[in-house]
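Q: Structure for this?
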Amino acid sequence: MSAPRPTLEVAGIDSLILRLFEQIDERNMPWMLAASTRLREVFGAALIDLVPSYTTLLLHYDLSCLSAAQVRQLIEQAFTDLQPADSSNGRLHQLPTWYDRRVGPELALLARRSQLSEADVIRRHSGHDYQVFALGFAPGFAFMGLVEAALAAPRLSTPRKRIAAGSVGIAERQTAVYPAVSPGGWNLLGRTPTRLFDPAIDGYSLLQPGDRVRFEPIDHAEFIRLGGDDSPLQDTP
Amino acid sequence: MSAPINPGLRVLRSTPFIQLQDAGRYGVRHLGVTQSGALDWVAQRWANWLLGNAPGAAVLEITLGNLDLQCERDAVFALSGGDLGATLDGEPISPWRSFSVRAGQRLCFAQPRLGARAYLAAPGGFSATQVLGSCASNLREGLGGLDGTGKPLQQGDQLTWTATVCALREVPGAQVPNYRTPAQLDLVMGAQIGDFSGQSLFDAFNSDWTLDTRADRMGIRLLGPVLQCQSGSMVSEGIPLGAVQVPPDGQPIILLNDRQTIGGYPRLGALTPLAVARLAQCLPGETLRLRPVVQEAAQRHQHEWLAHWPAT
């Protein structure tokens, strides 16, 4: 894969979308990470926020110190001689996960759709390292993939109003953990006791783009021992 | 229980729509943390200017009224933004000026008479816990507010501040925003605007849009002609403040300070910051117009506006 040349799209008065790729692809990540690092370096304090997603970066700059022309120059500078980030820089996280119908009400649905047993759904979901593509939706909510095609499932047609913190879900070929109580429409198959977002920890979010994640099946006793909350979901879709 | 060490304002009655807000939370959106901050940053800035505060100092954002506060010491406050029928011991307090209160007086906000949101500032800004660089309240994320957990203002809360102000000021009359005429909101045209049909673009900028009741700090829905876009759902990407996204039902949603950080609906573009501030004073049922502008013109206008800001 050669170095991407971003197309620049106006997003707002002080924001541009830098489009690096057209398709979601695990091979985008080293370039996305490298571009983020370089943009942060060249913009310095004039960068207000940089929001990476799968194929794009939203660059929000300080209008009071940069003109549109200067912004384009800095972007040009950031992408000159760009080298992909070393993918071994990302961390590997093991997320202990209690897969169970009581906290994963779509386990049965996922099994039925894939014509697998629930045990096989669990084995397949946990038998694969996932890449963190992007953070979004909520603090520390990491979009991860790719889930194998057999387990892919569309979002629930009616999202739940209240999903417990730590809930592990699947939407299409992505998987994620809800870091805090929130509404949501992903298919739930289990729950992790691991805390994903905490203003008191370095970097605030446990999972960062470029990291890899493996879900490690644990039983109920272990889930409780690790501080998990096994209260059932309040509402069903 | 001992008396509060630092008496200030005690909350007698509040609603979930009354929150402590500052200029917002920046530099953390890549972690999925939303921007937050005062929706009407212009009114917030004036409230702080009236007291000589930093422009982004923490203020109370009072949406739709229904707030009673007990003053526990003499002080000077400033009020800006919408007219929510504020009274001090029953005497009307009009916005866009600072005013003195004495210990024992009661400051009350009834309901909207003009605009939707009032901003109350205290000398030096209200004191609050900073979380990720800001005290802006966001209940969904559990960040900011008085105790750092994002909760809106609640009965029994104590508001405090640290500075002292004596002089009273007013916002120059010519600079008081006009909430009476229907809002004309500048929209910086975005890259996906070409994906909308010609008829839809004509409709977008030549129709009266009505504010839906589905309106909060995340976003405001508009009701009007159905807009059609060729691109349906896209790969999710970062969303700027004021983004005007069009989901498959063709009715635009304007995304505000508490929006999700990334999303996948096509967008006409994004409102300018001044347009976002004006929108924050519109109530459900009001009508507004969208006006297309290019980024360069919007930037020039913003610079000119800031250049007219009076010195402190």
